[in-house]
Hints:
The complex is a heterodimer.
Chain A (H helix, E strand, L loop, with lengths): L8 E8 L3 H7 L9 E9 L3 E8 L7 H7 L4 E6 L2 E7 L5 E3 L10 H4 L6 E6 L4 E4 L9
Antiparallel strand pairs in A: 1-3, 1-4, 2-3, 4-5, 6-7, 7-8
Chain B lengths: L11 H16 L1 H4 L7 E6 L5 H12 L3 E4 L14 H9 L4 E6 L4 H8 L4 E6 L5 H15 L6 E5 L6 H10 L6 E5 L8 H11 L3 E4 L2 H4 L5 E4 L10 H7 L18 E3 L20 H22 L4
Parallel strand pairs in B: 1-2, 1-3, 3-4, 5-6, 5-8, 6-7, 8-9
Helix pairs in contact in B: 1-11, 3-11, 4-5, 6-7, 6-11
Amino acid sequence: MNIDSIRNGIVIDHITAGRGMKLYELLGLDALDVSVAIIKNVNSRKMGKKDIIKIDADIPVNLDVIGFVDPGATINVIKDDRLAEKKTIDMPELLHGVVRCKNPRCITSTEQELAQLFRLTDRENKVYRCVYCETKAQF
Amino acid sequence: MRSIIDILDLSPAEIEELIATAMDIIENPAKYAEVCRGKKLATLFFEPSTRTRMSFEAAMYELGGNVISMAGAATSSASKGESVADTAKVISCYADIIAMRHPKEGAALVAANNASVPVINAGDGGHCHPTQTLADLLTIYREKGRFTDLTIGFCGDLKFGRTVHSLINAMSRYPGVKFVLISPEELKVPSYVKKDVLQKKGIPYVQTTDLEGAMPDLDILYMTRVQKERFFNEEDYLRLKDSYILTPDKLKNAKLDMNILHPLPRVNEISVKVDEDPRACYFKQVLNGKYMRMALMRKLLKEAGTI
Lengths: 139, 307
């Protein structure tokens, strides 16, 4: 399967297979007016299978979203057909406005204007908890 | 502005300081009778409660202060759609300190983030109830004289019981503490309490459904009520509500100096016949709660520079 390489843009690589669509959704890529390719289940020597997202524009990407969904992913910034920058991802300590708390008893379920905030409580197991009710974040 | 939302907002040293104050209040009540003179506590209770609200109010009166209150969520601006944040900003203009109970988890944190006076969480849904834990801790301290080397049994609703989670959190900071978790399968301690608190800190614990089998090992037995308001489904509540009922017969194999605690109100999970047993401490707990609320309000008002 061939997908054209991009001249200027961003490639999110080494995405855990199956998480590409979730990243696409949480990064708000559906709202972009540029070409975006999601390639699923690509063969990878290191990972077995992986997903890749290619964005045909150099847009700001919310690294916190990637750090939350898949901190093992990498970001390649392409400029004039060349790899201009390679970014590694860290898990953010505080996740602001990325996902909503799913606990129906949480105050954020009735007071919708409250900021959705999750704190990293267990780095090893990648657990984020709602700062209000301590429910585990889900994506 | 310092607020208390979770028992873990207080360090073990601060808890010891509060216990020392509470013990001094018990010995010398006259010394504290005027410390909050001219100050006002606002009790904001968006959920039915008698004892916690009255305990806070009695505590403030015994410190020489006054209380302003709302009758309940139905008669407050919350029924008109006012947010917790706005309510906290408004009440900060009237009171020097706020005690708040709300059915939604995290509501007290929202209030604290918006109030300009200290906020004490008097229960936010099934989440935290730190002043109940302070009452529990003073009771354990007065009965046992220590927090270390104790085997503590929790019995009943360990899933939704916020007092259980808070007390596990607080007691797991002391060496030599073991937990015995007694509940029906459906009401077991949530896995995050086990993973994030017990397993992370390497604290020994046993899970069982057998109350009588666990009884001989216990230094403290903490009974809880299966709370109707925490269930979405009435059928589940009816099936589980009578899982454990403590009777004099079941206490036969208990240690003679074991203490029975319960956050109250009880429905039928402790037979009234147990009340006569010298090991029953749940009414002492109520009184201890008032002393700890006095100590806590004094501390927060002092820290805020109000008194």
